[in-house]
């Protein structure tokens, strides 16, 4: 008996990305946050959120996939536009074909540091037939598996502390009112 191949839907990654943003918005609201998805095509953030009970704000970037996650750097090497030291989070949504999503709530500065470190390691490691990798390759990838022996892999273990770490939104954000009146 042969298995029928699932039909391919053009733009399925966009559907997956939209679903990830909706899952994150729903999870934020379930946890007492107002969550507003930004306009399609916003360059920096996908969701802007505010605690319902206090003046705490978060700008959230959502990356949705399953097992591996890919970012594209800009031509100047920038990975994240308008990145801030506080209140800036990337929620990685591991969305399997069936079952519930797994969320990793990671400060964007941490994501950027790991992606840069992985890229540097990749550039130092010879490629096929011992040839050097090209610094013009703008893609950055991490894999949520348990193989920590390969660079860019093992993030299911490396970032275990960020799995469902929604508390970081409350703990890692400076209140907007702290800068009021300046």
Task: Describe the model.
- There is one protein chain.
- It is built from 4 helices and 7 strands; from the N terminus they run H-E-E-E-E-E-E-H-E-H-H.
- It is an alpha+beta fold and 182 residues long.
- The chain has one domain: Trna Endonuclease, Chain: A, domain 1.
- Strands 1-2-3-5-6 form a 5-stranded mixed sheet. The chain has a two-stranded antiparallel sheet with strand order 4-7.
- A hairpin with a 7-residue loop joins strand 5 (88-94) and strand 6.
- The radius of gyration is 18 Å and the shape is globular.
- The model is unreliable at 1-7 and 174-182 (pLDDT under 50).
Mean pLDDT: 86
Second CATH tier, the architecture: 3-Layer(aba) Sandwich
Which structural category do the helix and sheet elements fall into?
alpha+beta
Unreliable segments (pLDDT under 50, ≥5 consecutive)?
Answer: 1-7, 174-182
Distance between the termini: 71 Å
Q: How many helical stretches?
A: 4
Report the count of strand segments.
7
**Tell me, what is the CATH class?**
Alpha Beta
Strand content: 15-25%
Overall shape: it is globular
Series of H and E elements:
HEEEEEEHEHH
Domain count: the total is 1
CATH topology: Trna Endonuclease, Chain: A, domain 1
Main sheet makeup? 5 strands, mixed
| Fraction of residues in H or I helices | 10-25%
